[in-house]
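Holo prediction — 2'-deoxyadenosine-5'-diphosphate.
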Amino acid sequence: DDAPAEHLRRNPNIIITGTPGTGKTTHCEALAARIEAAAAGTGPGGDAALAELRHIAVNDIVRDRNCHDGWDATYQSWLVDEDKLLDELEPDMTSPRGGCIVDWHACDLFPASWVDLVVVLTADTESLYDRLALRNYPEAKMQENIDAEIMQVLLTEAHEAYEPEIVVELASNTPDDMEANVDRIVAWVTQWRIDHGV
Ligand code: DAT
């Protein structure tokens, strides 16, 4: 059943997606810091709605819970077993508490009923190139990711898999962008809780 099921959750589940290098980890770390402050009661005023959220680092789950069929040395990445990954994520993402912030370089594997917001981060080609160059990506992987960003692969994937009103594209070129994006996501969580009577 793929019908939206927000009413089953107290907090929204959020997917942060985008081509590698667009800033998923950086955004999630900033959000995690805000969540921690909110839970400790020391965050900015608007942050109270974040207290019950948690960041789920999918990369760590893939590695630590063996959701892969090995390491692709040429491509320098795990060969991800998506079925196993979804099995590992299901208890958290279908729990009544909700509030999962999940970052992953794909999005359409997550059932629509698990997802309340999809944030697609984007970056200019030059910024992305510089960031990936710093990671010493193999040339083929570098080119594939730059092409994917230019072709807006993640944005298309998000629009094909989810209702338009839950897909948000956010530019991630500068630290100011990142700060504004995090503020926007926090404001969106606050509004979601109001809309859902939480
Ligand atoms: P991802 O997790 O999507 O692969 P990341 O968060 O690791 O990306 O970011 C890659 C690099 O780019 C990292 O050195 C931080 C930098 N970066 C990310 N978003 C940025 C932004 N909005 N402004 C400036 N630098 C950014």
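READOUT: Strands lie at 14-17, 54-57, 68-72, 77-80, 100-103, 117-122, 167-171.
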